[in-house]
Design brief:
Aspartate Aminotransferase, domain 1, Aspartate Aminotransferase, domain 2, 3-stranded antiparallel sheet, 11 helices, 10 strands, 34% helix, 14% strand
């Protein structure tokens, strides 16, 4: 596989990162952008400015909406995807059945598994998830890109099967947004924590909901920031909630959004198709070096069996930041990675 390329992908976005040599762990946590560094340093040197905080939240909301091809009024802000998923779990009827992939990330599963009221969670292999959707399923929840394996879900087939039986679709795109094109409008709800591939401070999460689904949800965690005018919603119970997805907002972690806004703006301005081509080319070449089979859908995450942790130890000893999940070694290629990172990792593994 040829890695020849005349210019780095998305050069303005790539320029946001300094020395990223050997960092192959965006699937664990992204590197900080220069814009984020500047914003947070400035924040520490000034007095609190609530108006500036709210501006950063709204700019972040708009940038994320652009990244996932919806309008900002369809985006709710939060701090953790599991908390946002709890709103969806609370709206399920008693005794409902939720379908999730085998081995799905626990934050996608636990809000439903512990919702009570007789709600049941059923599992199926990711590759057979669409086939497992039948009229008994009320909601299908899945990660677009699996954290442990990097496997990419056949979202089109899952959505089509769910629509045939009237089931809701909930997609966690935490491991996808930032390196691959994502269309949030394809799902009833989409969630994303931005500290991985979007390289934001931890504590910035987003949930998109369709207008139809929003009408079926109860804002069980409504606070002052869910008000139509948050600054008129600070006291008492006579509060008009926002008429859009903002009614599911929680009070933002202000400094986290100050740091997130420049990173999200940089990603929203980049050509994600270009980023996708770059990272999948690197990941594909790395798989070839390791003799791994090509996946059905090209992923930026490469994993392989490493039951004793020897491969991860070898990468770490060579100065490569990687990770291990469920008995597998795991590396991730992002916009700040290049051919040298691939060569260093391959050499560390004797390939």
């Amino acid at each position: 596989m040829s890695l020849a390329t005349p210019l780095p992908p998305a050069p303005a976005l790539r320029a946001e990162f300094g020395d990223a040599r050997g960092y192959l762990a965006a699937c664990t946590a992204g590197l900080v952008t220069e814009g984020t560094r500047r914003a947070l340093r400035a924040e520490l040197d000034r007095r609190p400015d609530v108006a500036a905080y709210c501006s950063a939240v709204e700019a972040s909301r708009a940038a994320f909406a652009q990244l996932v091809a919806v309008t900002p009024d369809r985006v709710a802000i939060g701090s953790q995807t599991s908390v946002q998923l709890s709103v969806l779990a609370a709206a399920l009827p008693d005794g409902a059945t939720v379908l999730v992939p085998d081995g799905e990330f626990s934050s996608v599963v636990l809000p439903f598994a512990h919702a009570g009221r007789g709600i049941r969670v059923r599992t199926a292999p990711l590759h057979a998830l669409a086939a497992a959707i039948d009229p008994t399923i009320a909601l299908v929840a899945f990660s677009l890109v699996q954290s442990a394996t990097g496997e990419i879900a056949d979202a089109d087939a899952i959505v089509a099967a769910a629509r045939r039986v009237g089931a809701r679709t909930v997609c966690d795109a935490t491991q996808a947004v930032g390196w691959m094109p994502v269309d949030a409008a394809a799902f009833d709800a989409l969630l994303c924590h931005a500290y991985k591939w979007l390289c934001c401070p931890r504590g910035v999460a987003f949930m998109t909901v369709t207008a139809d689904y929003a009408r079926a949800l109860t804002p069980v965690q409504a606070g002052w920031y869910a008000g139509d005018d948050p600054w008129a919603s600070c006291y008492g119970g006579e509060v008009d909630l926002a008429g859009c997805a903002r009614r599911f907002d929680v009070s933002p972690a202000w400094q986290a959004f100050v740091g997130a806004e420049p990173a999200l703006r940089a990603f929203a301005a980049a050509d994600i198709d270009e980023v996708h081509a770059h990272v999948t080319r690197l990941a594909g070449a790395f798989r070839e070096r390791l003799g791994l089979p090509a996946p059905q859908r090209e992923s930026a995450i490469v994993t392989w069996a490493d039951p004793d942790g020897a491969a991860l130890a070898a990468l770490t000893a060579a100065g490569i930041t990687a990770s291990g999940r469920r008995g597998r070694a795991r590396v991730a290629f992002h916009v700040f990675n290049d051919r040298d990172d691939l060569e260093r990792a391959a050499a560390a593994l004797g390939r």
